[in-house]
DNA sequence: CTCCAGGTGAGTC
DNA sequence: GACTCACATGGA
């Protein structure tokens, strides 16, 4: 059975006609290294494989890159229609679904995703991107036809000095990324091997790594291990869940239980749509306290 | 200037 | 379990 299934999966044509909102997907805070061209197309890397893509009314166009790899990375096989139908019916979720229609949860390389989210704590999306690009520029490997370098593998990061990462703006995160890379390099932890574990056991393993708590672990589960029911709860989602609970505050564990119950079988998808909706909502103009300036 | 950001880990009760 | 605090950095 496994052999036959493998053959089927290998020969099945990639579902390239499936709808996708490319810009929304690439700007939603899952991945941080894609570059938008003047003409609106996108250049970036899938691992160390260069890709040049564009989208027109939710139809993907591949200007460069292996279609099978692109289809897998951008998860064109996820049943977006069914996922959308599973969304909760409250106004926020409905609006998020409308606003982000076509957004997909990527299948990212394990290490690359883990590393970028270790650097994500207490940082804005723009900063995470800046750190990722700095690390790629200084320690990554050049790839032809790509405007960005491939993320350095953990073997390379493990041999850096903390100063090298501090120079990339990581601050206190530098020590965590370095130590995690060294644990992987020593072979004490195998990210690919763990992929067969059930979600709760995989999460329990990931949080053993320095700089990885429940939130980062859930990001990696969702964005790299295709656990589409994992719900990372950051400050934004925390606020949103609290609002859904009519302002009733809750501990992290309570909010996680609530999210699991309320957001449905594709809770990770709902979470990502809610996150992106909240972040792209027009910002309320800050109330400025006008004072007489003494002179 | 202050405030905030896709949190984590250690200490304390 | 829950609560508090320090931890670097940079943009608004």
Question: Helical segment tally?
Answer: 15
Silhouette: globular
What does the main sheet amount to? 4 strands, antiparallel
Helix content range of the residues, please?
Answer: 40-55%
What is the topology, as strand order, of the major beta sheet? Answer: 1-2-3-4
Strand coverage percent: 5-15%
Gyration radius over CA = 20 Å
* Mean pLDDT, all residues: 93
- The span between the termini is 83 Å
N-to-C order of helices and strands: HHEEEEHHHHHHHHHHHHH
User: pLDDT below 50 for ≥5 consecutive residues: which ranges?
Assistant: 1-7, 287-295
Number-wise, the strands total 4
What structural category do the secondary elements indicate? alpha+beta
Report on this structure.
The structure is a single chain. The chain is α+β, with helices and mostly antiparallel strands and 295 residues long. Helices cover 47% and strands 7% of the residues. It is built from 15 helices and 4 strands. It has a 4-stranded antiparallel beta sheet. Strand 2 (42-46) and strand 3 form a beta hairpin. The radius of gyration is 20 Å and the shape is globular. The N and C termini lie far apart (83 Å). The chain binds a DNA duplex (13 and 12 nucleotides) through residues 29, 117, 120-128, 130-131, 166, 169-174, 176, 207, 210-216, 219, 232-237, 251-253, 275, 279, 283, 286.
């Amino acid at each position: 059975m496994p052999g036959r299934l493998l053959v089927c999966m290998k020969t099945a044509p990639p579902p390239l006609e499936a709808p996708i909102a490319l810009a929304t997907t690439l700007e939603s805070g899952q991945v941080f290294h894609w570059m938008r061209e003047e003409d609106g197309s996108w250049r970036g890397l899938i691992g160390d494989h260069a890709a040049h893509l564009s989208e027109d009314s939710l139809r993907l166009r591949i200007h460069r890159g292996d279609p099978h790899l692109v289809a897998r990375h951008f998860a064109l096989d996820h049943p977006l229609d069914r996922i959308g139908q599973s969304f909760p019916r409250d106004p926020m979720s409905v609006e998020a679904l409308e606003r982000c229609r076509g957004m997909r949860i990527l299948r990212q390389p394990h290490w690359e995703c883990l590393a970028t989210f270790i650097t994500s704590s207490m940082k804005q999306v723009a900063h995470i991107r800046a750190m990722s690009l700095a690390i790629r520029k200084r320690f990554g490997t050049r790839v032809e036809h790509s405007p960005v370098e491939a993320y350095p593998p953990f073997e390379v990061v493990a041999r850096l000095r903390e100063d090298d990462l501090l120079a990339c703006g990581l601050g206190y995160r530098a020590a965590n990324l370095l130590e995690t890379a060294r644990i992987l390099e020593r072979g004490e932890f195998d990210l690919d091997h763990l992929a067969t574990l059930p979600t709760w056991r995989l999460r329990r393993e990931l949080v053993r790594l320095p700089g990885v708590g429940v939130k980062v672990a859930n990001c990696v589960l969702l964005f790299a291990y295709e656990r589409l029911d994992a719900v990372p709860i950051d400050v934004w989602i925390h606020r949103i869940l609290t609002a859904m609970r009519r302002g009733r505050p809750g501990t992290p564990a309570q909010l996680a239980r609530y999210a699991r119950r309320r957001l449905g079988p594709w809770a990770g998808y709902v979470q990502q749509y809610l996150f992106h909706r909240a972040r792209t909502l027009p910002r309320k103009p800050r109330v400025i306290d006008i004072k007489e300036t003494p002179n």
